[in-house]
Request: fold
Amino acid sequence: MNSMCAKSAVSRRIKQLVLGCSLLGLAWQVSAQTQVQDAWVRATVAGQPSTGAFMTLQADSDSKLLSVQSPVAKTVQIHQSTMKDDVMSMRQVESVALPAGKPVSFDPHGYHIMLIDLTAQVQEGSKVPLTLIVENAKGEKETIEVQAEARALGMADHSKMH
Amino acid sequence: MSTLYTRRTVLRGMSLLSLGLLAGCDGGSKLSFKYGKDLSDKIMGRTFKLKDAQGETKMLTSYRGLMPMVFFGFTQCPAVCPTTLARAAQAKKLMGRDGEKLQVIFITLDPERDTPQMLDAYVKSFDPSFEALHGSLEETAETAKEFGVFFEKIPSGSSYTLSHTATSFVFDSRGNLRLGLSASLTAQECADDLLTVMEVC
Reply:
């Protein structure tokens, strides 16, 4: 009777341990990834050679976005917009820092991804595949596949510029 | 005595009339805008001569009776251009019936890459009433200068992008420059100031 009790107690412990371990593993797996949210691309009109891609990235550990690739464009660059005295300037950047746990917004008013020399018109409602390469502080690279939604060119921008 | 009285009446009438002009369509009068910049005393953008998608020459006088709002940009601009055009479309809607008088004019700073047909399709995807104008490189530079618009090519890999002034310039229905709207304003803020321009002329 006693040994039965002990046995079941031990097996319960083991079960808890396994559950705990698997939960931990799950948590680790999730946090090891860079989260991509609200990825979208601005649709184009026929003949328009380039457009922008936008999203929010959040890395678990200090990382940086190194590069982006897409089958819809011959060249993909990371750009930064800045506004000074109502003059909008754009320049290409090498990489974008993704501080641990902090959402970094890629939007029309700051960092954004430029899809240059489009292979075809980006139709509203279609999905645009993007491949993001993120590197953490240890130099480990992570590849993230994203399906960005093509939104209407004339869509009003809801984020206020300030 | 009676002639003097008449003269006085005429004078009074004339001063009242000129007061009305000052508050109204006279180009030099100041306006108080809540958000934008009053450009009533600026002599800018009066003599541009560019072509529309059909190849027809357009000048400021082509838009008499309408309230032209001029914005400079290029279709490969990922950020401020579509945002500003979308804002203009929204402001036009917010203005209700008065919005019908607002004529948005998009002038390309990149005539080498923006073909007239593509430009036309681009602006009309925001609002079918919007117009796009283009010129040669020289005409473009001249027009930008006339508006005090800065623009500069920035090499980017094998391609280039443009830095440029993102202000929208608003004229009243008689062709007097009135208002400068910065890119940081919302559609509602723009609509409020655009209605102020409409109140005077």
Chain B has two domains: 1-27, 31-200. The CA atoms of residues 166 and 183 of chain B lie 6 Å apart. The domain at 31-200 of chain B is CATH 3.40.30.10 (Glutaredoxin). Chain B touches chain A at residues 75-80, 82-83, 85-87, 89-90, 113, 115, 117-118, 121-122, 125-127, 150, 154, 156-159, 161-167, 182-184, 186-187 (CB under 8 Å).
